[in-house]
Amino acid sequence: MAAVKGPGVRDAAPDFTLASHTSSEKVSLGDFRGKTVVLYFYPKDDTRGCTAQACSLRDSHEVFTDAGAVVIGVSSDSVESHKKFADRYNLPFTLLSDEGGEVRKAFGVPATFGLLPGRVTYVIDGAGIIRHVFNSQMNIGGHVDGALAVVKELQAAA
């Protein structure tokens, strides 16, 4: 079976609407037009790598927001699972539930070893254009450091 090809750098990010852990309302990527979005796909709440990534983003959250960026996490876990995960680790950003995996497919996020949902981070500018893609299941710090560098570049260019 061929891998799903998703958008890359300089492509328009696919719009989507998903349920948020913070409210009963749905959140759309288009809601953030005009802002830089750090959109990260991760495999599963409360796993070692995903917890490390979420906590690293939490610890850098103020730097991201000071640079005008919004951080959004997406996995196939339920809204209830996201609520527990966010509460347990005091996550200050939105987690979205992609239970059917449709948004993951639209972005072409690959599975690791064909089984484990991939870990990919996108930086999307205020016009909805992807400016950075980092794909690594194991290099957790690379997701945060790479995204932060691009967010700062976008802020400096504004």
UniProtKB/TrEMBL annotation:
InterPro entries: AhpC/TSA (IPR000866), Peroxiredoxin_AhpC-typ (IPR024706), Peroxiredoxin_BCP/PrxQ (IPR050924), Thioredoxin-like_sf (IPR036249), Thioredoxin_domain (IPR013766). Residues 7-156 form the Thioredoxin domain. Its main location: other. It holds the Pfam family AhpC-TSA. One of its GO terms (biological process) is cellular response to oxidative stress. Keywords: Antioxidant, Disulfide bond, Oxidoreductase, Peroxidase, Redox-active center, Thylakoid, Transit peptide. It is found in: Thylakoid. One of its GO terms (cellular component) is thylakoid. GO terms for molecular function: thioredoxin peroxidase activity. Its EC number is 1.11.1.24. SUPFAM superfamilies: Thioredoxin-like. The active site is at residue 50. It catalyses: a hydroperoxide + [thioredoxin]-dithiol = an alcohol + [thioredoxin]-disulfide + H2O. Belongs to the peroxiredoxin family. BCP/PrxQ subfamily. Monomer. Thiol-specific peroxidase that catalyzes the reduction of hydrogen peroxide and organic hydroperoxides to water and alcohols, respectively. Plays a role in cell protection against oxidative stress by detoxifying peroxides and as sensor of hydrogen peroxide-mediated signaling events. This is thioredoxin-dependent peroxiredoxin. It comes from Allocatelliglobosispora scoriae.
